[in-house]
Structure to design on (178 residues):
């Protein structure tokens, strides 16, 4: 073959290669399994550290049920608002039988130390009796009085005094709370 024949053959091969169909590219199809649910993705696995929306935690009790009831000055009588909160507490405690509670009674800073310790104890007892009357086992509730020793607000006006006249229910999962 001469040089002209080789060149013509090469040009023909290049022309045929240029006319050839490109290879079809296969694209991988991605299917979203949640696309037609209408409510967005639903996570169905376990989460470390608990489950979403769990009501069986002390944090849920404090934030959603309510752990504090307030009293009028020198009083241990439960108000309507206090009874509503305590009814929710009783319902939660009955539903979560592995929890125990300590009811902490507090008083404002006026009065003697001894008087306020006794007043805090009577407030804690009033809360305990109400929870028991709502069906919570008496052995799961303990009372404790701090009197005026642990104020939530430190000041000397009626607004602060009102916040310190309280009983706080502290729940814990193992045994009686601390």
């Amino acid at each position: 073959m001469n040089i002209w024949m080789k060149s013509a053959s090469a040009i023909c091969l290049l022309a045929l290669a240029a006319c050839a169909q490109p290879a079809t590219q296969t694209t991988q199809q991605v299917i979203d399994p949640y696309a037609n649910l209408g409510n967005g993705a639903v996570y169905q696995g376990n989460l470390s550290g608990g489950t979403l929306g769990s009501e069986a935690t002390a944090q849920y009790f404090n934030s959603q049920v309510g752990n504090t009831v307030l009293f009028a000055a020198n009083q241990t009588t439960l108000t309507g608002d206090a009874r509503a909160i305590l009814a929710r507490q009783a319902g939660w405690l009955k539903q979560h039988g592995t929890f125990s509670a300590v009811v902490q009674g507090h008083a404002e800073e006026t009065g003697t130390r001894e008087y306020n310790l006794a007043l805090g104890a009577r407030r804690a007892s009033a809360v305990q009796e109400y929870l028991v009357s709502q069906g919570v086992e008496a052995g799961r509730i303990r009372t404790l009085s701090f009197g005026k020793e642990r104020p939530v607000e430190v000041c000397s006006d009626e607004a602060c005094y009102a916040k310190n006249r309280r009983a706080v229910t502290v729940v814990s999962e193992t045994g009686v709370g601390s």
Notes: The chain has a mean pLDDT of 85. The longest strand covers residues 100-106. The CA atoms of residues 36 and 42 lie 12 Å apart.
